[in-house]
Amino acid sequence: MSLDIRTAVQTAFWITIFLTVLFIWLGVLSIQKARSLPFFRMRRSKVVRGWRLLAWAVVLVILAWLLRSQAEPIIYRFFPPTETMVPTATITLTPTISLTPTISLTPSITLTPLVSDTPTSSPTPHIPLSVEVQFLSTTTPNPDAKFSTLTFTDGLDSVYRPLRPGVSFINPIIHMYAVFSYDGMVAGSQWSALWYRNGELVHFETLPWNGGSGGLGYTDWAPDPSEWHPGDYEVQIFTGLDWKVSGVFTVEGEPPTPLPTMTYTATNTPTWTSTPTATPRPTVTPTSSPTIKPTRTPFMSPTPTLKPTPYPTLTRTSTPTATLSKTPTLILTPTPSPF
Fold first, then answer.
1. Model confidence at 209, in pLDDT bands (50, 70, 90)?
2. How remote is the C-alpha of 22 from its chain's centroid?
3. For 35, 245, 321, 326, which has the most beta carbons within 10 A of its beta carbon?
4. Each residue of 73-111: pLDDT tens digit?
5. Please, which pLDDT band fits residue 185 given cuts at 50, 70 and 90?
6. Domain residues of the chain, as ranges?
7. Contact at 8 Å (CB) between 12 and 21?
């Protein structure tokens, strides 16, 4: 019969334990028998034989410990255990695989790739043309630049470390970050971050690299909270047109409704009605009232023209010239009236 390495080691271990117990028993028995012998030479040989058996028992104990702990690893270094896997343990499962021809319904399952979820996950991500036309940098990026896996969080500390990392987030969400470490970046080279939701591009950023050659960085997205619809989100990082790393997270729960946008549109309408009503009123009141009043004042001028004749005489009476005006009035007034 054929034994594997583990069975052989276990068998040798138990045989060693059995021999150890046997040698200890024979050694103790030989020493006890030597005490009853009257002759020195025979008694000495029995004692020496007993102690020799006990010494062999100690050696067997050490050998048993080595067999238990070190034998298999040492043997596997020279005889790898892969060859023991070759027997028909895996081949016995092949008859079950032979049932696959009976699953002839696979052509109907081939229709599932028509669901565009698997192509949009893009096993070979690429930059869309609408993003590529917005490239500004002419610096060639380093093809050996490296990025770590993306860590998603809704908050960062002062040194850009994620506060609450995870792969599943529940609404409401305000700000989302994809944190990464990088090495080998060239200043001024173009880099891009694309955000997909269920395979649809919902946000991107592309700009010349303004960081160092290595360190910690992030890409973020902070839309209106109502735009965080539940689904699977994927973030892809590119340097130039070369894809570097991707990460996936999910959003659960319904986002809040965008009620504030309705109030802002209502406040804009009163501003249009208030401005036209204020403009005509100042134009009418100041122009009409001053123009009419000065035109009517000259029509009142004839009446004061008759009155100034006595008024200057009265004023002149106070002066010494007013006395001379009284002499002509005495001569002229009486003569014309009787004749």
1. very high
2. 71
3. 245
4. 787 777 765 544 444 445 555 555 555 555 555 555 555
5. very high
6. 5-81, 127-252
7. no
Listing DSSP states for 110-168 in one string gives TTGGGSTHHHHT-SS----HHHHTT----BPPPTT-EE---EEES-B-TTS-BSS-BSE
How far is the C-alpha of 199 from the C-alpha of 197, rounded, in Å?
5
Q: Which residues, 6+ apart, have CB-to-CB distance to 199 below 8 Å?
A: 116, 117, 119, 120, 121
CATH topology assigned to domain 127-252: Immunoglobulin-like (2.60.40)
Cβ within 8 Å of residue 33, ≥6 positions away? 46
Residue matched to tokens 């298999």: 72
3-state secondary structure of 212: coil
Residue pair 199/121 in contact by the 8 Å Cβ criterion: yes
Q: What is the pLDDT of residues 39-84, one digit of tens each?
A: 888 888 888 888 888 888 898 888 888 888 877 778 777 776 554 4
CA 188/CA 207 separation, integer angstroms: 9
Angle subtended at Cα 124 by Cα 239 and Cα 223, rounded to the nearest 5 degrees: 60
At residue 231, the 3 state secondary structure works out as strand
The answer to whether 227 and 256 have CB atoms below 8 angstroms apart is no
